[in-house]
């Protein structure tokens, strides 16, 4: 595992490209080394400043990758230069190709049942060799029952898409019981994979403007998160850096 770098209260990895991480991912699974993989954007960072347990969970991750231009700029204030945007929605398809090539099976957990089933169908259409071991929606009352179902499926990889911080907390508290080698918090990936939510045009993603596209689609929900949230994030990162320097 490459050395983590401090950005305020959180320590994160700084892989230069998606392929760099995909190579590490492949190596760990081939060597049967379990891993918890999470992604950090400024929204997640803000949550972690108010939720100490979540902050600790993020720092316990085997890998915590940068998602979005906000984190990249915030990290730079701490002298950490991050490379390519490693958001899950773009990275997960690359990891799934590795799964298909190596015959590693995948369990999808999250969203509504019809959405996760549609995502499973579309992913196997895109990657005919991909083995989906099972699916389950993100609404359940018993961790023990869903963990048993996941383990009985024989899945090598678990994708959990229940939103921050629920998905990371689920993985963390069940980490010792879950049998899949890789447990990945994937945010809205299941919704995007199903086609329910559209991705931003490629040019907007390349310019780190996907947040703007999503705000146009969901202005009421995303306004506070993207405008107020960005301001809160940078204020916090700058304050923590000033405090650290003192």
Number of domains: 2
Gap between N and C termini: 31 Å
Q: Strand-residue fraction?
A: 15-25%
Rg over CA atoms, rounded to whole Å, is: 17 Å
From N to C, what is the helix and strand string?
EEHEHHEHHEHEHEHEHHHH
Structural class: alpha/beta
Quaternary status of these chains?
single chain
Residues in helices, as a percent range: 40-55%
Report the principal-axis shape. globular
Strand order of the largest sheet: 4-3-8-7-5-6
Count of helices? 12
Low-confidence regions: none
Mean pLDDT: 92
Major sheet size, sense and barrel closure:
6 strands, parallel
Write down how many β-strands occur, each being a DSSP E stretch of 2 or more residues. 8
Provide key terms for this protein:
246 residues; alpha/beta; 2 domains; six-stranded parallel sheet; two-stranded antiparallel ribbon; 12 helices; globular
List the helices and strands and how they pair.
Layout (H helix, E strand, L loop, with lengths): L4 E3 L2 E3 L5 H13 L4 E6 L1 H9 L1 H9 L2 E4 L2 H9 L10 H15 L2 E6 L2 H14 L4 E6 L6 H11 L3 E5 L4 H8 L8 E4 L3 H6 L7 H5 L3 H8 L1 H27 L1
Parallel strand pairs: 3-4, 3-8, 5-6, 5-7, 7-8
Antiparallel strand pairs: 1-2
Helix pairs in contact: 1-5, 2-3, 2-12, 4-12, 11-12
